[in-house]
Fold each of these.
Amino acid sequence: MSTIARSRYSITVRLAHWLTVLAIAAAYLLVELGEDDERGGTPALAMQGHYLAGLAVLALLVVRVVGMARGHRPPIVPAPGRLTVLAAGITHAALYLFLLGEPILGILSVNYAGEAVTLPWSGVALPMLVHADPAAREVVEELHELLGEIFYWVIGLHVAAALWHHVVKRDNTLRRML
């Protein structure tokens, strides 16, 4: 393994990371377009795209977890202190919980509305996880939206930390994912 390869995550992990970034950005953009009836757009089409982006986040999470488990974890050079490692661990755990929880809550919200999530533009329906329940749908939908708002802040923290490592600490944290 070359020095460059040992200093970065595998191509699988890096590609899954950046595709996840794009899928999350698409999910946020499309849900905004889908909720905005006043612009004269097609909310149903935007929401289909939102569902697709959410399903992509979930699929990419599986790829990332498998890739991280099977691949090499390049060290941060110079090594960070214990507090930094702890903060990074907590932030990454939060990110992974959001990457898992948000799509699942989205699927549950659709299912509680009595609808199956279909793979956009294909007509292929995913199995229903729950039966229709309007009261549960309202709770799950509000939780999905609330966690989506909180996720903005966690993502911002993640980006700020990556930039702090790159610009201030001048370590290889960010370069490992590029």
Amino acid sequence: MDNITFEQLPQAVSMLIEKVGQLADKVEKVLGNTGQRQERRLLTLDDVATLLNKSSSTIYAMTSDKRIPYHKRGNKLYFFENEIIAWIEQGGTSGTGNEEEFNKRLEALRGSKRRKPDSLKTGGM
């Protein structure tokens, strides 16, 4: 290591600070912020729709069926990025079950739909 003169000290300290910052960034990437409090970034409905490549109405339907993590205050829906990412990592399952179970329940509801008797459809006797 070279001997640093008094005149070179400010430049050396500046370079050292830069290197420590780079090192901290690399450590943070490797550890994935584990052990630190992760910040909860708030996402809008449009942000979630873009992230999942779905329409806003699909996201509304998913919240209605409790298939996606969300929070609601009054008429407003809130999503947290870390919860959505965790939900994706778990295979997109949350709440009432997976999509296959949802589709089975949907088919059961469609099959049990009651229809008017033909005698009532014509309007007369």
Amino acid sequence: MSSEHMQIGEVATRTELSLRTIRHYEETGLVIPSARSQGGFRLYTEADIARLMVIRRMKPLGFTLDEMRALLEATDRLDSDEELPPEEREELLERIRGFDQAARQRVEDLRTQLSRAEEFAATLAVRLARIPAP
């Protein structure tokens, strides 16, 4: 096994994803191990870890597997060494800009939810502080 390849356990540790989750992302085609060992074990590279980290970061923002796939396909295409026609390149960039805008909106929505949750917790703390101890 090459030092640049990692088995799934190391990938799970580095990405803080479970083995089951990584296998699920493989089954759905979001990430494909770069190689297999002679014994058939999945082998991953730094690029595979980077891909898993994109997925991990999209998940709490509520992106679907199909949306994750669409973003990854767009970035893969832009990152390829192939010369893209200008209109295709612009379409891919526009798709990524859409994901950027959606992510920013979802982050803002989560900040609003967190603020409301903190207000609620503070209200409970004040209420409990007013109750005399027995």
